[in-house]
């Protein structure tokens, strides 16, 4: 049974502060050593990069690649200092993955995301993958290590931060870089913003010596969520009569609080000298999501107030930033079956443990939120592209990024009315680092292994439109530990997913078909059943084969069968061969199988009479595959559906059939193109409006010359 963990409750003030302090310390320790991204040392980044420069983002433009598969962003950098690489360019192009073109948007869950005005040190490699880019600078690059390829400056404080590193001063970063390169840096252009940092430090010392002008007395709520239009009310003094250049800041959940993020200007609802009202954001000015921790208020003069009490943000709804506003994307019925069909690419089809681990993680989300995901037929495509296919694949570190365990690519489209804008997920792709030492389960990971199911659970959270949080036990915390597993969802994870589903089930003004709930999840799964398979081993026998691991308390297995996968009957019992901490294999033969399609599963009965189930598996009689059945062949005259003819064509992967309808004179009267899926639901053609008489229906499966035939129909 899936377990839910409550992370927070109504906690007294002092306990809240202590609890969060412990959580924040734990989260930063985890982030330094054991993340969803593997930390890359400064030494490695310097060695692997062709170019290391200090620079500023001065402009950016999104563009499609040559094949129109993915959207990228061209960021133009003005370099100030060179630490490595013979670059004398006045401008350097840095290509980042993802971006927006009109209402089309691609978001890569682990990609570096830059904003104009940001400064820092870039670790870059020359890129030749894309020949035509908007930059036209002569030097086109990509960051080594994706997010870890940029150490961002905080110009107000004179400090520098990356995902896992922090430096108390920019000069401290210079010192470490020159120690790694063994040479002094070259100044390419004057960085005027950095020259003002000593003055800022002096100003801050003066502010600390004088009474603090800005004070936070209280705020509410103290336990909240981000990206959900939750209004944070801050009470205090000295905020200023208007916002001006002032801002509210939250810890950044995308780096466990190394940096701060600010809401979009449209998120501020009220700003007076004594009170601020602002939406808690998941789409922010500098990228990143609001996370748990102290909040800050900065007035127009740069005075800063920090709350004594932390805010706890339990979950975050991913938002789309568009025209300086934030919008909540929704999930839709994109496959005609209520949601999204997921296809395994060839690179993962060869690894059954990976497929099973992914299925378990997917089923966990389905069981708590009823999100409509399903595993469809495999695909021969092994590339992540905007192609209306949600693909799961392995990819090399050069593709996903050095140090990245896995990433999810969410693709969006949108439309606007006179009063509102809506974005929806058209598809999502997932790329898994092929060089990681994975533990696929159900056994726990050991030593330096990463738990595959835990990472898949996290990445599917992104597909569910949830963002990172700073709560170590939550699955959307961006860091995991080596040899640790989190294969269950916390209560906040479930609450966030349920909110996304609630937004996705209703009608929308864009006329897109909303998602339908998936009520077919296997929601009481046995942790001992490792694999289960079923196949026709003779025309009149189906063999069910399963393996278990760490079988200690199981008494017996009841083999169950179903026509629909919903209602089950018991067809046999197999006694347990345990207890055994290792792997055991079992076989059961059904000598009276169903004629075409059937589902099998195990009811696992324990010594204390409790029970759980295995995942269900489907088996198709090979004799039934690619045999066209048409009914009725005597078609009634009239309307109201009376002219419909139904067709079934059982397949294991999608099949495209072309139908030609001839009258008895040999004249072509109608054509039909139908796609039969491995869901194997009947399709129909409409003969309404045709004269009574005999017709010949000729059919052919596309690209299969040996298929096809003719069927006679009579229209009454």
From TrEMBL:
One of its GO terms (cellular component) is extracellular matrix. Gene3D superfamilies: Collagenase (Catalytic Domain), Immunoglobulins. Residues 340-494 form the Peptidase M10 metallopeptidase domain. Signal peptide: none annotated. Keywords: Hydrolase, Metal-binding, Protease, Zinc. One of its GO terms (biological process) is proteolysis. InterPro entries: Ig-like_fold, Ig_E-set, IPT_dom, MetalloPept_cat_dom_sf, Pept_M10_metallopeptidase. The keyword Protease applies. Residues 215-301 form the IPT/TIG domain. GO terms for molecular function: metalloendopeptidase activity; zinc ion binding. This is Por secretion system C-terminal sorting domain-containing protein. It comes from Pontibacter ummariensis. The lineage of its organism: Bacteria, Pseudomonadati, Bacteroidota, Cytophagia, Cytophagales.
